[in-house]
Each structure stands twice: as C-alpha cells, then as structure tokens.
Amino acid sequence: MEGLPSTTRTLLRGLLRRRPGLRGRTVPRIARRASGVEATSAWLRRYRALTEGPRGPTLPLLAPQMMAGPLHAQVLSDRAMPVGLLGLVHVAQTVKQHRDLPEMAPLDVEVWLEGHRPARQGAELDLHTEVRHAGDLAWDGVTTVLARGPWKDPRASGAPDEDDPIDARGAERWTIPENIGRRWRAVSGDPNPIHLHRLLARPFGFRGAIAHGTWLLARVAARLGEADGAARLECRFRRPVFLPGEVSFCTAPIDDGTRFTLRSPTSGKRHLEGRLIHLG
C-alpha cells in the first residue's frame, strides 16, 4: 500500500505498552489521517484472489477499509488507548459507499476513535473511517470491536437476531482453509495471532484460530457482485468461524438489496448476518 507505514511494525510497538483498562476511564479521542493513499495493482490482485471478487475499474467495496488498516493500527496502538489491541474482537461493521472509487486513485483517509459503551462481555468501541477522493467524501465506515474485561456489564442488551431467518435451502457451502488468516495478513497487514494459528489463538480464549471477520465480509461482498454507485453494507458478527471450517452462504432479496447470512452447515447457528442496500 502506497502512502502509509507498515501495519505490523506499528502494532508490534504498541504491544509493548501497558494499558490501564477502562475502569473509571473512557477512551479519549484518538485520530490519524493520511493523504495520497493508493492501492497497488499487486495488492488488488491479492485482494481479489482471496475474496474471489470480480475484476473492474473500481475499488471493491471493502478495499478502502483494508487500505486504512495502517491508520487503524496507529489509533489502536496509540499511547492514550486504555485497552490493549491483542484479543480485541470484531463484532460489527458498517460501510457506506457514496460513489465508485477508481482503482488507482489517490485517497485522503481519516480514522478516529472516541468513547466506549458497556457490553455483556466487556466494552464496545467504534472505530470510524472516512475516505475522500478529489476533496469529496466517497466512502465511510464504522468498525465495532469488543474489548473483553472486568468492565463488562451483564445487564447490557445484546444485538438482536434477525426476526425472519433466511431459508438455508439452496445455500452455497464454502470450505475455508486453515491458512486463510495467514494469507489474508498479506492483504490486511494484521498480525493478530487469533487469526494465524490455533496455538497462538488459545491464550486469548479461542480453541483454535478464527477467520478474520473482514475477510468473511469481503468475500460476501464479492459474491454479491460488489456494488455499483452508492451502497450501504451492514454486518453483525455472531460466532467465530474456526479454521479450517465450512459455512453455508444464504441470501434473500429485500427492497433495494439483499440480506445475507453465513451459518454452520451442521448446526445452523449463524456466524454473521447483514444486508447490502443499493442507495440509487
């Protein structure tokens, strides 16, 4: 990625800092910005190979999220961040594409984080991303992560399930290889061990390595044909996908878009669910 520092180096430096936690504290505003951020042709080839997405003259729907990864790393590793990066769990993602972005266009990117809210297992934090092209807002997103810890609130309400589950008949079955986390790292730059190997994931409470939520969502977007023009993608991550694994990809039409879910082909339990809405 041109115009940004190494994500891995930033995160590894952040790991050495002690964090005070969220008891009696809140997350202060932490922001970073960069200009002239560009995707390279080699990076886009890797992205599309791993998501099985269509080729085209515009950026894939989740590509700006990944291009902002180094700035996300800087914010989450900042000295003022009260909780550590390792073990943060991606629980929700929303992106809004205001218009198509050319593949090789220089972009201005701003990322910020401020505040948190109690959750059943810890605290949820919203990481905001805005992407501008030629001075105009072209894409924005909110990444919600869970910081597990003793500051949790068991009384907090969880995200409700969809009222109308999608019929799984005719669903596609995806086989997910054990090494997808390591391969996606070449695109995302994310060295979080919970995605890399089962032995590295166990100290963080997982029985094995889990698929990266952004990769799962990027593959969903690719399977839906990405999006032309203005669109909104919403997703809630319910349960981790352990590697290697299999999931069923189910869809159902809605007004101006598509609902989707990834679920276990054996138990039927949902790993993620969301919707892609075309805004005209």
Could you characterize what this model shows?
It contains seven helices and eleven strands. It is α+β, with helices and mostly antiparallel strands and 280 residues long. Helix 1 (7-15) packs parallel to helix 4 (69-76) and helix 2 runs antiparallel to helix 5 (180-188). It starts with 6 loop residues before the first helix and ends with a strand.
Give the termini separation: 30 Å
| Beta-strand residue fraction | 25-35%
Average predicted confidence as pLDDT: 88
Q: What does the overall shape look like? A: globular
Give me the count of strands.
11
Show unreliable segments.
Answer: none
- Helix percent reads 10-25%
Can you write the helix and strand succession as a string?
Answer: HEHHHEEEEEEHHHEEEE
- Number of helical segments with 4 or more residues: 7
SS content category: alpha+beta
Strand count, sense and barrel status of the largest sheet are: 11 strands, antiparallel
- The assembly state of the depicted protein chains is single chain
Rounded radius of gyration (Å): 18 Å
Task: Chart the SSEs and their pairings.
Blueprint: H1 7-15, E1 30-37, H2 41-51, H3 63-67, H4 69-76, E2 89-97, E3 107-113, E4 117-119, E5 122-133, E6 136-148, E7 172-176, H5 180-188, H6 198-201, H7 213-223, E8 231-237, E9 245-254, E10 257-263, E11 270-278
Antiparallel strand pairs: 1-3, 2-6, 2-8, 3-5, 4-5, 5-6, 7-9, 8-11, 9-10, 10-11
Helix pairs in contact: 1-4, 2-5
Which keywords apply here?
single chain; 280 residues; alpha+beta; eleven-stranded antiparallel beta sheet; 20% helix
